[in-house]
Amino acid sequence: MFKEFREFAMRGNVVDMAVGIIIGAAFGKIVDSLVRDVIMPPIGLLLGKVDFSNLFLVLKEGKTAGPYLSVEVAQKAGAVTFNYGAFINTVITFVIVAFAVFLLIRAINNLKRKEQEKPAAPATPEDVLLLREIRDALKK
What we know:
The chain is mainly α.
């Protein structure tokens, strides 16, 4: 059974899939940091020093009454919060990842299209002789 599992796990497509998942997870972290640390701070500054990750509504007060300065403080107090700022960050992250995947697929499709458009290699004299031999053999 171990031998069968090893054969399954070492197939090319399984290994390729594992590598893709690992790289995808790392890429997701990079994009998340790009959104959280690079894109959102200037947008928040333009909108009046708003930190999107701390945009929330209190649905139910916690043990300690608000106002709460951050989502973390509200949740530590036991408040139930609607964290729409975190959702905005997640949507922006998704759009960036989806756009990056689109650009990757577009580049791959362009390469495939160029490969298909290449003209066939011209026949060599050896090819012509071989084709004549085949034609002559078929006539017999």
